[in-house]
Amino acid sequence: MKTQTLTLVFCLFASLVFAQQKAPSAESKLLLTEKGIAAYRDLDAKNPDAVREIAEIKQKIDAELTEEIQVPIPKDAGGGYTHEQHKANQLSIFYAGILYKLTGEERYAARAKELLYAYAAIYKTLPLHPEKKEQSPGKLFWQSLNEAVWLVYSVQGFDAIKPYLSAEERAFLKAELFQPFVDFLSVDGEETFNKIHNHGTWAVAAVGMAGYSLEDDKWVQMALKGTTLDGTGGFLRQLDELFSPDGYYSEGPYYQRYALLPFVVFGQAIAYNSPELKIFSHRDAILIKAIYAAIDLTYGGFFFPINDALKEKNLQTSEMVFGVDIAYEITKDPRLLSIAQYQANFAPIDAGFEVAKAIGGSLAKPFEYTSKRFRDGEKGDQGGLAIMRATTSKNPSALVYKYTAQGMGHGHFDKLTWLYYDNGEEIIRDYGAARFLNIEAKFGGHYLAENNTWAKQTIAHNTVVVDEKSHFDGKLSVAEASFPKELRFDVSDPNFQIASAEIKEVNEGVSFKRTMIYVLDAAFEYPLVLDLFEIQSESAHQYDLPLHFNGQIIHLNVPLPGNKTQLSALGKENGYEHLWNLAQGKADAKLSQFTWLLKDRFYTWSTKTDISDELIMAELGANDPDFNLRNERALILRTKGKSNHYFLSALETHGSFDSKNELTLNAYNQIKSLELIEKDGKKYIQITTKDAGIKTYPVENPN
Questions:
Q1: DSSP state of 275
Q2: Most buried of 132, 181, 314, 565 (most Cβ within 10 A)?
Q3: Rounded to 5 degrees, what are φ and ψ at 166?
Q4: pLDDT for the residue numbered 26
């Protein structure tokens, strides 16, 4: 208590020094204006349930008002006490400021001021964080990224209480807190600030929002154009280079979600303060496209876990709440309101109150998820991500075919991979990232070593591995320079959707072409996935095609001798060292078939094989002394001594299992044989079924 009193005395004394300096005005410049305040008060009077989030925030901050503030000297990495306390304080400053504007109660402004003054007392003299990350260390936090996040939230709290602060106090906070913060992010952290990357996005948004609120045009211009003010860095260049023309973010859906918040909140601040920039129209409304793209890159509300991704993230995260609310304020698209209803929350800004009002007025319409392809690369010429969906069934399915560019440092070596969703579940899965975010006991919340040795390696994905080596030999610089070429994408016929892509030199002298087809045919109970993976090579190799399935094994049509007494790792490196070899044996002479059960539905993978092929049942967990990896299984199809080769497979969904009533229907699949045939110079997949005869599907676009 004594220390806090001395701190406040110092800050009050120091503020007198700035009494004669030009202070920022008391006018609010950021995302909560008189428009939002009026909307809140109207809703609170007429339909208080519509703004219950504000009541919950009030309850939280009211409880904090009875406690002394805690601004500890930084010590802990992500997840530790000091890290989490500074994160909590940024929200307390933000929320207390919001409550002051909405209610007019000065006790909230006093709390936000007390916290801001406490940080002003220590920030200039803080050294780099003792647990600093090697790339871009922070002062309050282990990395400057978190520092930028702190400023994005805290400057909004400051902006909200400006009318409560005297001119001297505003000048003092600018000089003693915000100027040092801006200098740390843009001068000390110049490389990160100018980087075309999500860390750079957070940094420029923080500095730009501070510039608008504190009326410092130099900060704003740096944020827009980079530290040299020539456009080689900054927000505008990030908008031009980090998104494809379709709004796809280069690092993938997980990081698209994370980067979205600084993009949209700074974008909104620009729209309010610099309307002449027409920021939401920039590059054919790329920010709005990015928000819609983020929504489309989900199944059941959860983001497709490609590249470095944690599977728990969904549309209910704060980033997406801000994004959806701001997008609705601009577009008035009623479909966005159904997403907001799923989120069950709104951002406490002008846009959020407009969304709350619209939902209360029953304006929401369903957001329909349709088949789409998102091109990758700033010009849209670096591959893409194809999503093929069936929306007519009660439990819609989705085939995700990934033929994107690398995705910078968060990308995985998984060219031409795929995932499949059905019945609300991930059927063919991707591991995502090996990380326990903000759990300090697990390597301080960092990415784990296994993220590099397993999650990024090719064998961790559903694509071909050549000679047990990851694509591009796992070299990022090589992978960044190469990307797939889309050959076809056509979803005009919902019963026959097709995507095809190729990539050259994924391994030395080896190129890939993969065609994936999504078929709705009365011969099959549910949508059918067809997969043709063609390989061209100058010399013979071993090719492994893993299938990372999710569910309980039911049947394999060939016997696999299990390792009953001792398990060994499948290999020594490139991810193979993490796979236990549970069983290995010869594939079927014509067609290998594997059936598993997930929830109440059966899935059968049929793949054309011959007697020289092998099947391996593998389980993740070898060479994992700290038990960092999930124990997931994969079936691997291996062929040796081949140069040019192709894999032909089908995934068939069928039947049902009612565990409550012990009732099983159609546990056996329809496919009897798979063949790749050629007619008139064109390729076709021919399937012999049990009940519907022979079905033939063109590999080329049927139109």
A1: G
A2: 181
A3: -75, 165
A4: 81
Q: How far is CA 584 from CA 465, 618, 636, in A?
A: 17, 9, 9
**Residues designated catalytic:** 255, 410
CATH number, domain 384-666, options 3.30.70.360, 3.40.50.1950, 3.30.870.10, 2.70.98.70: 2.70.98.70
Average pLDDT over residues 163-191: 96
Q: Provide the token pair at 471.
A: 């694509």
Q: Please give the Cα distance from 40 to 51 (Å, whole number).
A: 7
**Which contacts of 39-44 are long-range, i.e. CB under 8 A and separated by 24 or more positions?**
39/350, 39/353, 39/354, 39/356, 39/357, 40/102, 40/353, 41/102, 42/357, 43/353, 43/356, 43/357, 43/360
Q: How many residues does the chain have?
A: 703
Among candidate residues 553, 592, 614, the one with its CA nearest the CA of residue 673? 592
Residue 562: CB atoms within 10 Å:
13
3-state secondary structure 587-651: CCCCEEEEEEEECCEEEEEEEECCCCCEEEEEEECCCCCCCCCCCCEEEEEEEEEECCEEEEEEE
Angstrom distance (rounded) from CA 210 to CA 220: 8
Domain with CATH 1.50.10.100 in the chain: 69-227
Q: What's the CATH fold of domain 69-227?
A: Glycosyltransferase (1.50.10)
pLDDT in tens, 313-355: 999 999 999 999 999 999 999 999 999 999 999 999 999 999 9
Model confidence pLDDT, tens digit, residues 121-173: 999 999 999 988 767 899 999 999 999 999 999 999 999 999 999 999 999 99
Give dist(CA 629, CA 646) in Å, integer.
31
In sequence order, the 6+-apart residues with CB closer than 8 A to the CB of 80 are 440, 444
